[in-house]
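Example 3.2
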Amino acid sequence: MKLNKVLYIAFILLTGTIAKVSAQTNYVAAVHGVLDLRSQPVNDKIELAGNWLFYWNQLINPNDTAAIKNRILVGFPFKWNGYIWRGKKLPAFGYGTYRLKILLPKNHSPLKLAMPDVYSAYRLYVNKSLVASNGTVTTSEKGFEAHWEYHAIDLPNSDTLNIMLQVSNFIHSKGGIGKPIFIGPAEKIDLARHRAEGIDLMLTGCLLMGGLFFLGLYLLGSRDKAILLFALFSIIYSYRIIGTDNYVLHTLLPDINWYVTARLEYMSLFLGIGLFGFYTLYLYPLDVNRKVVNIINGVCFSFTLMTLFSPSWIFTQLVNPFLVVMLFCLVYIPYVYSKAWRNNRPGSVYALMSAFALMSVFGISLFHYWTLIPPLQLVSFLCYIAFFFLQSLVLAHRVSFVLKKARAEAEQGLKVKSEFLSTMSHEIRTPLNSVIGMSHLLLKNEPRKDQIEHLDVMLFSANNLLAIVNDVLDYNKIEAGKITFEHIEMDLAAIARNVVGGLQTTAHDKDITLRLDLDKKLQHKLLGDPTRLSQVITNLVHNAIKFTPSGEVVLGLEVKEQTDASVTLMVFVKDTGIGIPRGKQKLIFERFTQADSSISRSFGGTGLGLAISKKILELQDSSLQLISEEGVGSIFYFIKTFEKVGKTTDSVSVDVKPDATDKLLNGISILLVDDNPMNVLVAQTYLKRWGATTDVATNGQEALDKLDMSKHRLILMDLQMPIMDGYESTKKMRLSGVSIPIIALTANLPKDVEEEAYKTGFDDIVMKPFLPDELHSKVLHYVFKQEHV
């Protein structure tokens, strides 16, 4: 009901506009070949309508003074094909002469005559002088040439004008003239033409640029066929604006070939409607009857082929039968868009509004073709602009809808990837815990010398695999934007010493020197993220050692600028290694990339270390730089400003590692909760060596059942277990009043679980595969902390 009202209102507005514009056209009819304008001033455009004299198959010479016979009074403009004369229907091919006498008031202003195209060729005489012509007028096909072009002719300053128009046609299915001729003040005639040309050129530019924009959008981004079809429709239909009706293209290119332009005129109509049918089909496939669209497209493309290959007198007859298709589209397209609107399709409200504009354009074109109304160019222009603007909104809404859908799918994909990596991390770390743990245990049991070598290789390989897993997870976290930075007090000099101390063994094994170069001006502790800076520096030093066959690696801290509140440091790692070719220096900062495949085979690694370091620094407003020469060595460095806090000390903090025979946990009972037998075996073995006794539970529910507050001093709880996980079990323990320390054992990265773990009630986290020293120190800390509470 609402839709019918909208259509009714649109129809009333359109017909009202048509009536208003039509009323503005001056109309004085000629009588018996004479148009008498003496009684009114000629101050506006006047259509030379009414009864003209017409002479069939006669090309009258303007200088002929003898009486001419066989004249006919015809209503001008007049097409002679199909006209009954002397009992016979006149053919399209032939020639004739039109004559009109115009009587003007004396002392009138300068006048012009606006001469449109005719269906083939003409010669126009005013007061016996040839003033305009198109093509070559002949009495037979021999030598005949057709041409379409608008002309504006300055009329002589006379009160009587004798107009003689010679027309011949041997090429088109219509003969004669189908458009009115206007006379009026020169400025009014020129203004009307300039306005018509300007509107056509502007609209052509809009359609062409819009079509190219959507074509580029299709080629470079969205592969939506609806966008491609609308782009092709806009480009092809733009010819309908500049190459028909006013024939602005013919004015711009006066020597253009008639046979080419005539075919383009008809093909642009047939192809345009066909492409729009396909566009509607792909735009709303569920609301379109595919058979109907296929029939329409079949007709359109058949007519296009006929236009391309048939003679002009045949394809110029195709317009009348094609009007049936256009009239059907006038009804069917709004029906499809209204159906899409009712079904809440994306952008359907804009499509429905555009259908009203399209109905108006087609309606004006049809009524003008039937000579029922003037061209109403301004109204058509506004309707065209409204139509293409609204269709652009439809496609923009469609692209936005697709992008939102793609974004949702991408976010879901990232979530799945993150969950997959987290799961894989857990699954890889769980067996690695057993491998690394058992390797440490075997190394502490006084193995033979050859066994020590084998165990070292196994431990190295396991730690290498663990480092790769950590790198992949770290990079994934950085890409997902989930990384956070601390802003706490740190001793950067101590961090540098610890990095060098920790990697001395690796450097010694390669027989290279690893040394630290500290600037003595660095006397303060700083504010920053010690964990992430340590990660960056360790990556750089480790990389330098890996790619340095001989010589030395230097880690340096150099003060660049210093104030009372801050210090700007350059942290650099210099080596005498293989160096990097200039052409590949940017490449090595990309993920999973090394300088070349031979390096990957020779030195191993994922290629993630530098990428991670680069991103960590960029997120802290710094950047990783490189100076390198192939075969000489490399310097990796970054410059960063830190806030100062307290002064540093020269001492180096060293963790005291407990001896394997220490029995500091004698008499301590611990509840170990883990569903993996190998992890239980590793943890039990360490705890036994340190003097503790353990009870084992394989899931959270069993832990609740086995917990004895009078006996157990500490709980080591795995997070992921069947029946009941560690989170749920810990939550129930805390709710029931259990206050003893609970340490989480997890194969996930601490940052992934710490928020939920601490919120649930865990006191601390130990990551698998755990280092014996870390587990020992944390167990001791919480056991003795509890005793002093």
